[in-house]
Design brief:
The chain has a single domain, classed as 3-Layer(aba) Sandwich (Rossmann fold), CATH 3.40.50.10420. It is built from five helices and eleven strands.
Length: 187
C-alpha cells in the first residue's frame, strides 16, 4: 500500500477511535494536557502564541486560548486562505463577534477586523493533528497547512501538539514534506 493510502486508512481509524471518546474523557484529558502546556518554559516565555479553535473530538483549546489572553500574550488564530491553500494568522482579542465559521465549520478570525500577523512573528504554535509518535512525528488532516506553518517558523519558535493517548502510535508513514513538532503533550 502506498504512503498516501496508509495515511488515509490511519486517519480513518484514529478519528473513529477519537470520536468514540466521551465528553467527560475529552474534557478531563484536555485539562491535564493544558496544565502541562502552561508549565512549559517555551509557553511562559512566548510573546506571540498561535492557537486553533477546536472542533469535534479534538483537544479542547478553550483553556489555552483563555490563559494566553489572561497572561497578556498576543494570541493569533488561523484562517484558511482558499485562494493560496495556506493559513494566515490574525490577532484575536477574545471577542466572539470577531470570529466567523470558516472551512469545515471551524471558527476563524474575520480578516477585516483582526490584524494579520506574519508566521515568522509567532513564538509558540499549538499544532493540531490526527496521530503522533512519541518523537513528535505528526499525521495531520491531509491539507499540509501546518507542515507549511512549521517550515516558516523562526528558529526560536516552538511547535507543540496536544494529543489524547489513543492518538499515539509507534510509527507513521512519512513523506519529505511531513514535519514534526518540537514537543508532544498527551494524556
Amino acid at each position: 500500500m502506498n504512503i498516501k493510502k496508509q495515511k488515509i486508512e490511519l486517519r480513518k481509524k484514529v478519528l473513529s477511535d477519537r470520536d468514540q471518546m466521551s465528553t467527560a474523557e475529552i474534557t478531563r484529558a484536555s485539562a491535564v494536557i493544558s496544565s502541562e502546556i502552561f508549565a512549559l518554559e517555551a509557553f511562559q516565555d512566548a510573546r506571540v502564541v498561535a492557537a486553533y479553535m477546536s472542533f469535534g473530538s479534538e483537544f479542547l483549546t478553550d483553556a489555552f486560548v483563555d490563559e494566553s489572553l489572561r497572561l497578556g500574550k498576543i494570541l493569533v488564530l488561523p484562517r484558511v486562505d482558499k485562494v493560496s491553500g495556506s493559513l494566515s494568522f490574525h490577532k484575536w482579542n477574545g471577542e466572539i463577534n470577531q470570529l466567523s465559521e470558516g472551512r469545515w465549520g471551524i471558527r476563524e478570525p474575520n480578516p477585516l477586523i483582526c490584524e494579520l500577523i506574519q508566521v515568522s512573528m509567532i513564538d509558540f504554535v499549538l499544532v493540531p493533528g490526527v496521530a503522533f509518535t512519541n518523537q513528535g512525528v505528526r499525521l495531520g488532516y491531509g491539507g499540509g497547512y501546518y507542515d507549511n506553518v512549521i517550515s516558516k517558523l523562526s528558529s526560536g519558535a516552538t511547535a507543540v501538539a496536544a494529543a489524547f493517548s489513543l492518538q499515539l502510535v509507534s510509527s507513521l508513514p512519512r513523506e519529505n514534506h511531513d514535519l514534526s513538532v518540537d514537543i508532544l503533550i498527551s494524556a
